[in-house]
Every structure is written in structure tokens, then in C-alpha cells.
## 1
Amino acid sequence: MRLSRRTTAGAAVAGAAAFALVASGCATEASEPSADEPIELTITTFGTFGYEDLYEEYMDLNPNVTIVANNIDTGGNARTDTFTKLAAGSGLSDIVALEEGWLGSIMEVSGEFVDLRDYGIEDRAGDWVDWKYQQATDPDGRVIGYGTDIGPEGICFNGPLFEAAGLPSDREGVAELLDGGWDTFFEVGQQYVDATGKAWYDHSGFVWNAMVNQLPEGYYTSDGELNVDGNAELKARFDQLAAATEGGQSAAQGAWDWNGGQSFVDGTFATFVCPGWMLGVVQGNTEAGGGDASTGWDFADVFPGGAANWGGAFLAVPETSDKKEAAAALASWLTEPEQQITQFEAAGTFPSTLEAQAELAANPTPNAFFNDAPVGSILAGRAEGVVAQFKGPDDSLIQENVFGPPLQALDRGELDGEGAWAEALALLDELVG
Amino acid sequence: MTSTLARPEQGTPPATPGAAPRRRTGLTLARFDLKASPYLYIAPFFVLFAVTGLFPLIYTLVVSLHDWPLLQGQGDFVGFDNFAAVLGDRFFWNSIGNTLSIFLISTVPQLAMALVLAAILDQHLKARTFWRMSVLLPYVVTPVAVALIFSSVFSEDSGLVNNLIGLVGIDPVEWKHDVFASHVAIATMVNWRWTGYNTLILLAAMQAVPRDLHESAAIDGAGASRRFFSITIPSIRPTVIFVIITSTIGGLQIFAEPRLFDVSNAGGIGGAQRQFQTTVLYLWEMAFFRQDFGRAAAIAWLLFLLIVAIGLVNFGISRRIASVEGNRLNRRARRQLAAHRRGNR
């Protein structure tokens, strides 16, 4: 196509006009609305967050506020959504929920989020378990997130399957049976496998996550150095897991699928590592697979190797928001102890504030699905002694794409323990470098 | 139009000196209108294309020449380092292999089936509109829904397909672990969605083929399949080329299907051992999971070049095949038609 000079000029003018249009659309208003003006706040959460009733309550308390909520189905998709909008420099809502697993990446650009000390978060610092507050603090001391929930871990187990294998099947008996380190957990697992010929846990990936999250330092040292190759503690745990898997303890299930939930119902595996938020996942999948409370899932007050945390979230206010003060006020209110209890009742997410935890420990409601287990008080106990682990920028990449594939090969018997570890190191070198 | 505008100037000289510039302005405007208007009318498309197509294309090139972490943004200029890194990555070549394999086992049967379906729909069927609309139905369903449904159909433990082949005594197939089986599964999703769409495009072209060609060939004793290969296909050549080119562009950009076929690997690697990670999925992993925007941009450019190259090859092949057929047909058909007419006389 040949362009005459005139059309080139015309196109240039039109292009410039379009560009100006886009540019003006991106400009943000600097002024903060005053207290009584009608104000619309947007908030993005993910998974099962349990905030719907709280939004209504807040809008009743503050008639000038309208909350426009958006919930993304999984944490993984929320990660993509948040990263894309951060990279584009626009599009984030006034409040964004951040997941602990990818907080490491967020901390690299913590300046994109408001320092909540400007909105009085320091006055509330004592509300949270101290490590939760620490996690939201960047190296410069800026605090960018109000903690919502945490992920203390217990063991979900299937009572009838334990009974059939000749093991204790009541909650206290199982807690006693599994009390100890990972070696105890895998020894009992081997007994179960030998007695029944069926698998002990669903797949190696989740167990590995739990084992890594429990260490004081995981894939990174506390100083932010990559800490996999030559990490004796990590390797020792990998060997334990590999030996158990080679002994037939893994059901080699596909995570987030579990054969459409049927594997939770047909006795494919007997135990499951359960952070608080996972209880909803277990229930949802059991029901999807055609099961119910009578399927026999229960929740024991024990975790191999002691206290561990997996997951949890924060509410942050991006710098691009033009209603920072109102957004911070809402985010702060949502994470107050009273509201965290409402959230727990709606979604099973375990509170990160001490007061809410104490309340749940003192007045546990039996969970009908988990054989009437006092889930709140068990999780409160499991939360004691949790140590926060530093999450590096590539933590979720290492978990998913470096250790994920070799562990699945291990589950399927395509690699042995040594082969899987070597493969993980090779992938680490290629993907993270 | 030019001549009518020019005539008064030649016929009547300007009465007053002041009138001349005004008339000249009017003339310039008219000339401008004449020359520029057509371009202005088509300008919206090109302006839109420049903003939404050309600008991203060039900007992607700029990104690909820089060290560019997703969240931190633009870093140092690194020349073609990103391209070198991608070209030296075994996962890139793995993704290219997967893409080509899925492309071939989806596009070839798809177009063959679309041609046959279109030929059937071109016959005098009862409830013609019903059948024609029916083939388009799968296209209405979003790719995400298609992927979710087929993901369950191809489930390894208790999926519909494994249950069905179990009835005839075939062992369950590992649809999400075996390389070839997973490609077949994904190609099935693509075919299911796109066959009907291509059928309708080909059908539209077939209806424009002159009926008298068919009739005279039939009178001369050519069977249905002979007429299909010797008259229909050469006559709809441009449409076939169009369908092949659009299928090539679409087929090399498969993303939603492999992304959603494997829920267990959140990092977008398409199967535990990257059995069905296509190039666009690899691009997604690079940009949003590995957070290397520069390399992702380089992948985008390499994929663009690959699509252009394969598109050109396809264009050349389909043009040659169809034109050889077409020339042979034209000569023969002309001769036959002439003979036919002579016979009639």
C-alpha cells in the first residue's frame, strides 16, 4: 500500500488524537473526596473469601459508601490478574487481596502499594499474630497489607478407612497416633498401605508444600538468597517423602481435580494435609464426588513435625487508587477481630487476629461435615508456634514449575527419589537461574 | 466530475480580482475532497488498526529488546539476547513441536470434514436452514466451556471416552499424560468448535458455483464425487485458501484448551512434563509465571514470524494444487461445454 503525504499526515493527526484520548483516560484525580460525599469503593478478592455479608453490613453503617466487589475463582488466577494490572500500571481496584504465596513478588514492588502506617495501622499492630504483621512489612518498614486469614495446618483423615485398616479412628486417637515428626507420619502410612493396599495421601505435591512451609527457611534464606541446592534440611525432607512415595503411599492424584472429587469418596486415600482454608476444599470436592458427612472425613489436632502455616491473605490499597483513605478504612474494618469471626463462619478461613482466635478457641462450633470436630479450637491450637517463612520473588514459580513436575513423575513411578531431586535442580537452574 | 468543475473557469474569466482567490479555495477543497475522501472513509479501520494492531506489534518488539521484569518494568537494553535465550531454550522447541503437532491433527481433518459437510449441506436437504444452523452451534459455546467439558470427557480415571472404549475392551488411555493422546484430545476440542464455522464459509462459496457446470458434467456422466473434486473444489479455490490461512493463524495460537485441560499444574506448563504446552501457553508461562516480559515478547515475535512463514507456505501450496486442478478443469469444461452446445444444435 502506498500512502500519499496527505493521508500520512491525516493518520498522524488521528493517531495523536486517539493517543490523547487514551492518555487523558489514564489520568487520575488527585483530590480525596470528603467524609460524607457518596463514594464507590472497588474490592477484588479470590477463592472463598466470605465477605458478602460484611459488605452489606459496612454499607449499612456507612450509607455514603457503595462497595463494588469482584471475586476471582482461584488464588492462581488472582495472581495473574494482579500482576497484569501492576505491570500495566492501571486497573487495580481500590482494595486488592494478596496471597501469601506470591507476596514475595509483590514485595519487590511494594512501592506500588500504600504505606498503611499513614492510615493508622500501627495502632492496630498488636491485633495480629506478630508474624502476620511482619510479613506485610517491606524491608524499608512500610506496611502494605491488613492481614485477613492464616493457614495453620492439621490432618484431615477418613475415620472409616482408618478403622478398616485396624488403626485408631477417633479424633484423639489419631492425634496421638500421628504425634511426632514426618517419620512417624510416614511409618503409620506404610502400615496403612501394607494393611489395605491403598494409598495414604492424595499426591506428593501438597505434602511437599506442607513440609517446605514448615521449615524456618524454605526455598530462600531469610536474607532472600536462593536456598535449594545444597540445602541439607530440604534434601532430607525430600528423601523422606520420596521413600514414602516409592513405598506406595501416594495416590498420584491430579491436584484440584481428584477425579472430579470422587477420590475423596471412594477411599483412594486416607489422609490429607489441611490448612484451615483447605477444609472448604475437602468438603466441596467430597460433595462434588457424591459424598457427604457420612463419607467419614474428620479433622485431627496434630501435624507432623509441629506447627506449620500454608497460605493466608492480606488486603492492600494500591497507589493508583484515588480513594485511599476510604479504602484503607474499609480494609481495616474488614480485618478487625469481630469481622474475621464472621468471615470464618462464612468461609472457614482462620483469623489472623489474636482476639478472634481466642474467641474461636473458647467457643468452638462443631463442624457437621467433619464429624462434628471443633474446627475453630483445633485450628487455634495448630496456630500456636507458627514461624513466618520468608517468601522470595520466585517462590510460587519454584513450588509449581520446579518441584511440581518431578514430584508428579515420582508419584507415577517415572522417576525415583534421586532422579526427581536431580530433575528439580535442573529445572531450577533453567527456570530461575 | 473534474471536467464539470473546471469548465466555468475556462468559459468565464473572473469578473472581479477579489473573486479569484475564493474560487481557487473552493477548487482546492473540491480537489481535496475528490482525492482524499476515499482515504478518509477507509481511515477509521487503519487508524484503529494502527492503535490496536501496529502499535502493540512495534511495542512488543521494543519490549523484546530489553531486560523487562513483569512487575518492575523496563530495564536495560539487551539487543537480541532475549531472542537468543528463547531460541536456546528446550521448552521453546518443545512448545513449537506441540503446537505444530496439534495444528496438523486439528486443521487437516477439520478442513476435510468441513468440505464434506459443506458438500452435503449444498444438496437439496429437507429443513435446510435447520441443518445449516446446527453445524454452527458448537461455535457459539465459548472455548473455556468447551475446554472444561472436554477436560472431564477425557478424564483418565472415569471420563466418558475411557468408559466407552472400555466397553469394547480397549485399555484406558492416559489422555493427560501421553503426548500423542493429549494432542488428539486437544485437537478434538478445536475441531468440535471450528468445523461448523468453516463448513458454513465453504458452503457459501459452493453456492456461488454455477449450476450449469454441474448439470452439464452430470449429463456427461460425471459422478457426484467426480463433480466434487473436478468442479466444486477448483471453483471455490479462493475461499479454500482463505479458510486455510485463517485456520493456520488460529491453529498456531491455541491457548485456552491446553491451559484448561490440566488444572493440576497452575504454572501453565501444559501437563506435568509439558506434554501439551503450546507456544502461546509457553509465552503465558514466561510472562505471568516466570515474570520475564522481555523474553515473552521475543516469543511473541518468533511466533508471529512462524505464523507468517507457515501461512505463506500454505498459500503457495494451496494455490498451486487448486490452480493445476482449475486449469485442467477449465480447459476440459470449456471443451465439454462447447461439445455440449454443438450437440444441442
Note: Chain A touches chain B at residues 4, 6-7, 10-11, 14-15, 18-19, 74, 76, 79-80, 83-84, 86-87, 105-106, 108-109, 112, 254-257, 259-260, 262-263, 393, 396-397, 400-401, 404-405, 408-409, 412, 430-431 (CB under 8 Å).
## 2
Amino acid sequence: MTTVDNQADAATGPGAGDVQQRLVAFLGSRTGGDWDLDRDLFASGAFSSLFSLELLQHVEQEFQVTVEGDDLTLDNFRTVPAITALVQRLRGDGAAGR
Amino acid sequence: MTTTDTGSGADTAIGVGAVHCLLPDELIPVDKLDEIGQLAREEAEFARDCGIRTVGRFDEGVTVAGLAAQAVRELRATDPAAPDPDVLVVVGARAPEVLLGSGSGHVAHEAGLSSAFSFVLDGLGCTGSSAAWSLARDLLVADPARQSVMITHASRPVALDRVRHPVTVVGDGAFAMTLVRGGRPVLRAHRQHTDGRFHDLLQVDYRNAPWYEWREEVSSADRYRFELALHSQQHLKRLVGQVLDDAGVERQRIAATLMQNVTAPAFQFYETLLGLPVHPVCTENLQAYGHTGAMDVVLNLDRLLARGELAPGDLVLVLNNSPVAAWAVTLWEV
């Protein structure tokens, strides 16, 4: 089981650990197993358009952000740290600005 | 990016004059397609499991221009008293049959249309038919002397292969239809949008291979499943809202929702997204004929109207989108 340090991280800003933990829990529950922090979402083999929609809706509702336009890219959703950085930036948290 | 608002069309009462769909007698089970045995396992599984049981196949010697012209001729034969169309809009095929020559002129000539101004509407993929509806309406509104705009399209794969992983399996078909004053259903509202960032998501490497090796390829399946899917959900959600606002109607008034036939999971995706059940006629046509490109929404609308389950005044919402990428939403009033 992957564990996530809930402390503030210099690279991703305060609260990043909490975001990561919740994302890991969501992805683990949706894929029926543990989810490694740096696992490539798009190399997981079970990726579909419907799952894309579920993931987006989860990120927007769970973290109270709106993801649209140029932010809807593979790179922003490829790994848990990448999604976390996106969430942090959209929330205007810490050092994760553009 | 381009967004076009053609507004509510109720006052001008421009609608469908007639529709004729041309489908092959020969339906080939997907798992009997010649290419199935040569596909990678993932591609073959996709083809078998995407919700398409059979695809229609015309004789090899028939061209897309010939099919479109046949659809136009047969449509005109059903109503010889109908006025000659003032304009012929040919929705572009997946690949042109000639370079430099005129594909639209070819269709017009073979169809026996001597006075219609003809041209190809291209670059929008499957969404081309929806854009043609809007354009036809605008052409009739712009010039009261025009009485009829004919739209036609033929669907065939660019070469021999029909499986376009992970998008769909391509079937053959052709249609012709007219938009006229006083036609039914009436085109009540239409919105459309394009995004050039996806211009190269689909491609055929035609320069480095003989024609019989051409394949319709998706340059990135991940981009298709993720970026395009999420952009599609945002655009279609917005366009549906705008169309309903333009028409001044509530969502609850929609009697049926249609879309293009790509895969069974795609229907599920858009039902989840929009909260609008896709009418079963779409699934039936997907299973029988596969994806017939820009013809899908015309076939679905025609077959829905033929069922006789809608009453005058009922509203039909038609969603259309293409990986190239273009999106359109049209509201018809029966």
C-alpha cells in the first residue's frame, strides 16, 4: 500500500499531501487495488472515455475546482503528483502557481 | 475556434423537405471482416466489443461520388414535382477521389443537376452533416429566391480497412436530403464549435504507402480517450444549453435525443454526461450498419421519424461531433 506524506511539500505547496492521499484512494477504489503514486494513469490499460469523465468530475467536486480549456491535457492528469499540482494551481495554493 | 449562432428558426419555418438513405444489401459481420485476423489483439477485441455487429458494404467498384449521386437521383425520383435544388452541398468524404478536380461537380453531374450551385463542405468530419443543415438554412434565409438546398454525403472507408481503433468500425452508406421553406421537421436552433488543436488526431499516411495499405489512424489513443472526450463533454454540454435557450424551451420538452453512431460505450458516455437518454434507434443503426460518418445523424433522424412515435410539435435534439474536432447541436421540431 502506498502511503502519502501529508506534510506540506516545497514543490507542490501546502495541502498537497492531503490531495494526493484522496486521489490515491479514489484511483485505488476505482481500479480495485492499490495505486502507486507515480503510476502512469494512461499506461494502466483500463482507461476509457467514461473513466476520464469520472476522474474529471471527481477532481472538480472533491477539490472544488473547475478544470477546462488548456488545462484538459494528458500531462496534467498523467500521475497523482501531476493532478495534485494542477489542483494546487487552480486553488491558488502555495508555490504551485503557473 | 469558431462558434456560430443561427438562432431560432421557427419564424422562417425552414425544415426538411425530404430524406433518402441508401444502404447496402450486404451486411458483413464484424468478426468476418478480412482485416480482423491481421489486427493486434487489442484492436480486434475493440472491433468485436464496440457494439457493432455488422457493417454494410457496397460493391468495390462504386465510388463515393457515384453513391451520393445515386442518393440524390433516387430522392428526386420520389417527388418529381419538387423544385430543382438551388444549391447542392456535398459533405466531404474521408478522402477525396480526385485532386484538383471537383468532387461536388462530379456528384452534380452524375445526379443530373445542371442548375444547382455545388460545392464540398469539408474539414468537419462527421459533424459536416449538421453544419450543412445550418448552412442550408442560412442560404435559404439569405436569399428568398432560393427554394431548396440539397445535401448529400457517402460513407466508405478510405481504403480496404474498416476498423479505426479505438474509435469505431466504418460502414458504407449514402444519403440525400433537402431543406426547404415550410419543411418538416423545422430547424428550430443550431449551435456549432470547432477546435483546431485536434486537427491531426486522425490521419491517413497516404504519401508513403500504396492506396490499398492506407489506414485511418488515431495518432494518440490517449488523447482521443481523454483530451477529446473531456473537451467534447464541455462543448456539448454548453451547446445543448445554448440551443435550448435559443429555442426558449426547457430540457424536459425534448422528446428524443439522437447522436452519431460510433460505439455503444459512446452512447453511455453522453447519456451520463448530459442526463439525456439516447434514443434506441441509434443503437439499432450502430449494431446493423456501423459508423457511416456524417450520414449517422441523418439515418437516425430519418428512421426515428419513420417509426411514427413522435407527434407534431415534438422536439428532437441531435448531437454530432468529430475527432478533428468539431461539435454541433441541432434542435428539430417535428
Note: Chain B has one domain: 1-334.
## 3
Amino acid sequence: MDKVDSFEKINILVNDIRSLRKGYLTNFFLDKKRHSIWIQKGELFSMSFWGCHFLLHLTDTVNSLFFITATKECLADSLKIFLPMFPKQLVVDIVGDETIVNLKRLFLEHGFNEYETLYRMCRVGIVEYDELSDTRVDFAEKSDCQSILDLLHSFFNPLSEQLPCYEEIMDFISNQCVLVFREGSKICGFIIFEVNGMTLYLRYWFVLPECRDKKIGSKLFNEFLRAGHATRRQLFWVIANNENAIKRYRHYGFNPENLFDYVLVKPAIKC
Amino acid sequence: MKEKIIAILNELRPEFDFNEPVNFIEEGMLDSFDVINLVNELDSQFGISIDGVDVLPENFSSVDNIISLLQKNGVK
């Protein structure tokens, strides 16, 4: 296994597969900020086979598998060799429209289990928000970073929700992409989001269990919409069986897209 | 070629107007997931295989850039 120490290395892997001119399948969608943090922290590794390269993001909590491959057959052959060599728990996200079911099946045949399904919800149009704001909602400060990280890791699922690390949260805070609701010094809830031109992307929306039913979530959401008032598309991923959340999102005008994220987990091999 | 590219883009992201003279990447009209799908669709519809070194977001930031990319990869 080789450590990936630059984007150049990833480009070489992509180029190698493209040069075969047999096709291109991947679940690695470049996110320069996020992936540069992984590279800087020494958490990204690669393993190469004919017609298929694996990228592994290895952390204390989750080991994630990414593939860059020419064909499904190359992927299958490579999995057959690679998986017995990696005894730890492994998570893979298969992302795409309904046609990716074949890829999902391939991983299931290689010892992965269905863990969670997420789908993307989207709202298209001008953002409408309440002009009145609550002074208890404000952009997070750098000193809030550890508290937000702790809340994320206490209440969200690291296997299925691709939780950001400290450095990523700090980056969100620096870019004014984290809103918090405070009562005194206590953070009762937060929203983490990204604005990319005309697209507003909701990453995490959270209210402490004991603070729910106080409209804290909707106050945070209103400020989130205000922050993204210039966007024309708003989107996020939701866990498919989280019916309460889906109902709430529909209330805000979001509808499901034909885009799925199948989270599959291969258990650790017992010695 | 231009019409065909715009039709592919509209199929991919119908919520945006790709006739607008803006940077599709900076404006958030296409993300890295869309770029991968776009590469596969361009490969298939134009019968080519875009070089790996060219699979960079900046090459998909406008219709003109996509045309240049296709021409570089042998589309006339």
C-alpha cells in the first residue's frame, strides 16, 4: 500500500485507467479542500491492480474504500485479490442513479453488507427566508470547533455520514459556513453548509435532544437560507429511512432526486 | 457540436441554463460528481475517450472549453 502524498499521484491513477480506453467507473469525486486535508494528515493510501486502483482513507474511526476502475470486471478481479489482504472493517459508498445497482451487487458478492441508503434531496428556485433573525443564532467561532466535532461524533454515524475531521470543521468555520444556536455558552444546535456559486449544500443540521421542540432547528435553517440567499439550487443527502427528516425537508420544498448513495460495510476479518 | 453539448448538460442538470456565459464550476452548476458523469456521456455520444490528464474541472467550466477539449480528443 502506498501513501498518497499529492494530487499528482491521484491524477496519475486516473490517467492510467483512462489510457486503457475501456471505460471509467469511480466513487472518488474530487473535493480539493477535503482531500488535501486527508493527504496532509497522511490518511490517504493507494493500491494498484490491472485496470483498477483503490484509494483508502484510513482513520481511527472509519476505513473508507474508493475505486478508480476501467470496468466492473477489473473491479471484481481486484477486489478478489485486495480484500483478503485487508482484514479491518471497510466502508464503501456507491453513488449514482438507479443504474449503479449492479455495482452494489458486486460489492455484496464480495462480503460487503448493506448498511444504509441515502438519497439526495434538492430544491430549485429563489431562496425565501424570514427577515427576522434570532440573536442566539450566529456564525461559529474557531473556539467552537472542538465542541462541534464532539457533537458530530456523539450524535451522527461515522460509517454512513462521512463526518468531517477537526481541520475540515475549522475550514468551514473560517469560511463562515457553520451557524450555531447558543443559550449562554452552550451550543444547542448547529448547521454546517457550503455555498458553491449557485448551489447551497447542507452538510449537517443538528439540535441537542433536550433542546428540540423549541424551534431552534427552524431558526438555524432560516439563517442557513439567509447565508445562501443568492443560490438557485439547494441540496443535501438524507438517510432514506429517516422519515421524520424527509417530511421536514419536503415542508421546506425539497424533493428527492434520482441519486443514491449505498453505504456498504465489510466486517473485519476475525483472526 | 455546441447544441449537442448543451443538450447533454441540460440532461445532466436541467435546473440550470448552460447558455449563460458563466463558469459552470465556480457557479456550482457542475460538481465533481457531475464532471465524471459528463465525461462518460461525452465519451459515449462522441465516440471518444477523453484523456485522463484532461479530466479536470476547469476543462468543463464552459461550453467553449468543452468544445476545445473534444477537439483535442479528435472530435471534428
Note: The interface with chain A takes residues 15-16, 23, 26-29, 31-33, 36, 39-40, 43, 49-53, 55, 57 of chain B (CB under 8 Å).
